[in-house]
Design a protein that fits this description.
CATH superfamily of the largest domain: Medium-chain alcohol dehydrogenases, catalytic domain
Helix content: 25-40%
Number of domains: 2
Largest sheet: 7 strands, mixed
Radius of gyration: 20 Å
Structural class: alpha/beta
Shape: globular
Distance between the termini: 22 Å
Strand content: 25-35%
Bound molecules: zinc ion
Number of helices: 13
Length: 376
C-alpha cells in the first residue's frame, strides 16, 4: 500500500461551463506506488494553471482518461528511488513537463525540448520508465506530461525535475516549469531577439506577459502588444511593453505596421487563437520572423497566402517550450530573476487551494488571470 493523498482527477473532457458548477475536476483519494528506479516522490508546494490544462479539460487536446492535470509546479523531494544520483530528500525542485532522456538523437543534439522518448511517454499519459504510478478506486490514473501536479504529491522521473537554487520562493519556482520557458524562452531562444530589435506580441495572457519580460531582457527597442482586452494591455505596458494595440475590429496588424513604419522584426503568437496568429503573421516586416507558441485548436481551418510568404520573405516557426534545454536554461533564468532582470513573480495574480481548481479554470477561460497558484 503506497502513500495516499488528494489529487484533482479528470474522468471526462468537454463538460459545460461554468466549471464551478459542472466540476470536471474532482478531488479523489489517490494512491501512489513508488518511486521506482530512477524516480522521485515530490511533495507539491505550488502548482500553477496554464492554458494547456484548460485544453485537457475542454478536450481540445485529447489525453488518455482518467488523468490528473497540472504541468507547471514546484515541490520538495520526499523520497528517491533506486539509482537516483542527482537528488536527495529535501531538495527543492521545479517539475518540467518535457522529460529529457539524455540519449536520443534530439537530446544528443542539444535539443532536449524535442526528446522523442519523453514525448512518447507524455502522449501515453505514462512516466518515462513506462506505466502509471497513480491508482484511484482500484484503477490506474494517467499522468499529465509526466507530472500530474494538481495534487499533494507526485511521483515523477528524475529526468522530469530540475533542482532549484536557494532563495527562490517555491511558488515563483513553479512558473519556470512552463510560463517562463514558453514565454521569455520563446523570445530569447526560439526568436533570438537581439538588442534594438522590434517585436510584436499577440496575446497578453500569462505566456504573452512572460514573453514581454523576455523582450525587455533582450533589449528590444519596440515591444508592441496586441490584445482584445484593455485591462490586459495596461498590465502589458506596466511590464515593459512600449506600445499597446487594442484588437477590436480586425485592424490590429495594420495598426502595428503604421506604428512601426512597416512592421516589426519579430512577432510572437501567444494567445492560442487563429486571430492572434494572423495578427502576428501580418505584423512583421518583409524578411521578418513569425513565431507561434500558443497552441491553436488543431481543428481550426487555416489558409496561408503562400505567394505572400515568398514575396514577404517571412520565416514562420513553431516554438515548443521556447526551444529551451530545461537543465541549462532554468538555472540561467532563475539567476536573472534573482538579479531582478526577469521579474516573473509579477505574473502571479491569484493564490488558491486545490479544492478551488474548477473556479480557477473558469477564471482562466474568461482570461481574468495571468498565473493562479494552487497551494495544495
Ligand atoms: Zn503550460
Ligand atoms: Zn531524449
Amino acid at each position: 500500500m503506497g502513500l495516499q493523498f488528494k489529487a484533482a482527477v479528470l474522468r471526462e473532457a468537454g463538460r459545460a461551463r461554468p466549471y464551478a458548477e459542472s466540476q470536471p475536476l474532482v478531488l479523489e483519494d489517490v494512491t501512489v506506488e513508488g518511486p521506482g528506479a530512477g524516480e522521485v516522490l515530490v511533495r507539491i508546494a505550488a502548482a500553477s494553471l496554464c492554458r494547456s490544462d484548460l485544453s485537457v479539460v475542454t478536450g481540445v487536446r485529447a489525453w488518455p482518461m482518467p488523468i490528473v492535470p497540472g504541468h507547471e509546479a514546484s515541490g520538495v523531494v520526499e523520497e528517491v528511488g533506486a539509482g537516483v544520483a542527482t537528488l536527495r530528500r529535501g531538495d527543492p525542485v521545479v517539475l518540467v513537463f518535457q522529460p529529457q532522456c539524455g540519449v536520443c538523437p534530439s537530446c544528443l543534439a542539444g535539443d532536449a525540448h524535442l526528446c522523442g522518448p519523453g514525448l512518447a511517454a507524455n502522449r501515453a499519459g505514462e512516466l518515462m520508465a513506462g506505466g502509471t504510478r497513480l491508482v484511484s478506486g482500484g484503477a490506474p490514473v494517467h499522468h499529465h506530461m509526466g507530472l500530474s501536479a494538481f495534487a499533494q504529491y507526485a511521483v515523477v522521473s528524475e529526468k522530469s525535475v530540475v533542482p532549484m537554487p536557494e532563495g527562490i520562493p517555491l511558488e515563483v519556482g513553479a512558473l519556470f516549469g512552463c510560463a517562463v520557458m514558453c514565454g521569455a524562452g520563446t523570445v530569447l531562444n526560439t526568436g533570438g531577439v537581439r538588442p534594438g530589435d522590434t517585436v510584436t506580441i499577440a496575446g497578453a495572457g500569462g505566456v504573452g506577459c512572460s514573453a514581454i519580460l523576455g523582450a525587455v531582457l533582450a533589449g528590444a527597442e519596440r515591444i508592441v502588444v496586441v490584445d482584445r482586452d484593455a485591462d490586459h494591455l495596461d498590465v502589458a505596458l506596466d511590464l515593459g511593453a512600449t506600445d499597446a494595440v487594442l484588437d477590436e475590429d480586425g485592424t490590429a496588424a495594420a495598426r502595428v505596421l503604421e506604428l512601426t513604419g512597416g512592421g516589426t522584426d519579430h512577432a510572437f503568437e501567444t494567445a492560442g487563437t487563429l486571430g492572434a496568429f494572423e495578427t502576428a503573421y501580418n505584423s512583421v516586416r518583409r524578411g521578418g520572423q513569425v513565431v507561434t507558441v500558443g497552441l491553436v485548436d488543431p481543428r481550426t481551418p487555416f489558409a496561408l497566402d503562400i505567394a505572400a510568404l515568398v514575396t514577404g520573405a517571412k520565416t514562420l516557426r513553431g516554438s515548443y517550450i521556447g526551444s529551451c534545454n530545461p537543465r541549462r536554461d532554468i538555472p540561467r533564468y532563475m539567476a536573472l530573476y534573482q538579479r531582478g532582470s526577469l521579474p516573473v513573480d509579477r505574473l502571479i495574480t491569484h493564490r488558491l487551494t486545490l479544492a478551488e481548481v474548477n473556479t480557477a479554470l473558469d477564471r482562466m477561460s474568461d482570461a481574468r488571470a495571468l498565473r493562479q497558484i494552487i497551494l495544495p
